[in-house]
Each structure stands twice: as C-alpha cells, then as structure tokens.
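User: Hi! I'm working on a homework problem where we have to compare a predicted structure to a textbook description. Could you give me the structure for the chain below?
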Amino acid sequence: MALLLAPTAAHAQALACKAPERMPVPRTEKPPRGESARKTKIGGYLLAMSWSPQHCASVRDPKGARDRFQCSGEDGRFGWVLHGLWPEADGPAYPQWCRPAKIVPAPVLRQHMCMTPSAQLLQHEWAKHGTCMSPHPAAYFRAAEILFGAVRFPDMKALAASPQTAGSIRRAFAEVNPGVAAPMIAVAVDRKGWLDEVRLCLGARMRPQRCKPFQAGAGDRRPVRVRPMPR
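Assistant: Happy to help. Predicted structure tokens:
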C-alpha cells in the first residue's frame, strides 16, 4: 500500500504537543435522538482530518474546558488533526453505534491526544465508529494512528495565501501523497466557505480509492478559504 509506506510524521502537525498529566474523563455516549445502532456491512472507510485553525477560530471560548487543550496554545499548536476513522457502507447508511461503549481507558486517551486533541471526541469516535470495527479501543485507535501517520500534508501557509477551490485542495493533497489521486479525496467546507476537513476515501482493505458520489463533498469549483496557522 503506497500510502502506508510513505515517509511520515503524523505528530509533526501537533507542534510541541504534550498530553496533559491529568487526563479529563469523558462521559459515555449513546446514540442521540434520531440516530440508532446500524450494523451495516463495511465496504470501505473514510479517514477524516480536520484543519484545527478553523475549528479554533469558530469556538466560543478557546480557553474554555471543552477546547482549551486544542485551542489555547498552552499545550502546543495544532495544524491537521484526526477527526476520526469511519467505517463506510456501499451507500450512505454507514455502520454506527454497533455496541455499547465503555469509557476509553486513560492510557489510550493520553496516547492519542496529540492526534485527536479532545478526550470527549476520542470517546465519541470510539462509541459511534470504532465499535463497528473492533471490540478494543486500543486496536481501533492504533489503526487510525497508522493511517493518519501515513498522510503527507501540503504547504498550508501557501494554500492560505491565495484563493483556492475544493479542486485545488484535492490536487495539493494528491501531489504530496504517492498513490493518491485527487478523486480519492473529499473536501468539506463550512457555511462561509472556510476549509473544515479533508477526507481520504479508503476501500475495504484500507487502500485509497475513488470517493463515491455520496462521499465526495464540495465540488471542484467551489471556492475555499483556508484559515492560516496562528502566530
């Protein structure tokens, strides 16, 4: 698999990150109203990566308890972080909430906080997506870590300095990731046109593949603004 063999440094996106000595204890999560357990057959995966500067620019209080670790700058500055590894189906009805999820053990949370800088988000990803892939949270997050660690990231400073489209973002990622073509990459933007996420479409064996129509996100011509890293 070309993607997994590429030289990488996943945590280079988390500049000087240090996991907190005292880990916050996340709350357990169950399907919210309107969602239910769905054990659809897995046909592929999405590796969803969030552009942290955009998230932090949109939160109400960067130093509040919910976002302090990621957004205050006290524990490092984050660029690309992993939202999650999501099992997908052959159609939009992806598997979710496949089994009751206990609290992710503190050592597992600590190990992955510089990849996904929120204990509650790690718990959510395990409960909603990870339980459909493995009975063990450590194994689920290890798979996510390997895949995220294999991704190369384009020069975000350069992308932020000039107008972009969803197509140019796709091409920028494809150019620095051998074996990955632009149609294998989905781009998500917020309501104001800011870059929110990039998602890599993967097949059943976790190899990059062309995104399906329901996965593709913003069209190539959609204008995209890129929030620069804070100084």
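For your comparison, note the following. The helical segments are 2-5, 52-58, 68-71, 106-112, 119-128, 137-149, 156-160, 166-176. DSSP finds eight helices and eight strands in the chain. Good luck with the assignment!
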